[in-house]
Each structure stands twice: as structure tokens, then as C-alpha cells.
Amino acid sequence: SCLVGSEMCIRDSSTYIARIKRALRLDPKTKQRIIEGIQTEIQLSLDAGMTIDEAIEKLGQPREVANEYN
């Protein structure tokens, strides 16, 4: 988990989430549901002891993640 740079962790994950959100070509309600699921997945990874980088790497590139739903 991010003990030292928790502020930076949040900024990193929000940038990642924003890129996925931009790449999603779906209605706002569906987009929000997907984003919430991804945020939960990131949090679960952090809770399991992963770093934010590891959690994001596990999910994949933003465009690839978005393409799974588009």
C-alpha cells in the first residue's frame, strides 16, 4: 500500500481512471458503473498489499481496459 506517497497514489489512479473514462464510448450511467468497478478493483489490490503501480499494471493499459467494454 502507499504509505509515503498516498497523495501521489490517488493522483496516479485518478489519471488512470480518467484515461479509461475518456476511452469508453458508452452512455454516462454505464460508464460510471464501469469506473466504480475499476476503482473497487484498484482498492482491493491496494488492500491486498500491492502498490498503485502494480494494481494498474494488473488491470492493463487504459485503452485496452476500455475496449473490453466498448
Description:
It is a single chain. With 70 residues, the chain is mainly alpha-helical. The chain has 4 helices and no strands. It has helices at 6-23, 28-47, 52-59, 62-67. The longest helix is centred in the middle third of the chain and has 20 residues, at 28-47. Mean pLDDT is 86; it is low at 3-8.
Give a short synopsis of this structure.
This protein is an all-alpha fold and 70 residues long. Helix content is 74%, strand content 0%.
Record field, number of beta strands: 0
Strand residue percentage = under 5%
- Which outline best applies? globular
Largest sheet: none
Our Rg estimate from Cα atoms comes to 12 Å
**Amino- and carboxy-terminal Cα gap:** 31 Å
Helix percentage range: over 70%
Unreliable runs, pLDDT <50, ≥5 residues?
3-8
Succession of helices and strands: HHHH
Q: What is the typical, i.e. mean, pLDDT? A: 86
Contiguous helical run count: 4
* Content-based structural category: mainly alpha
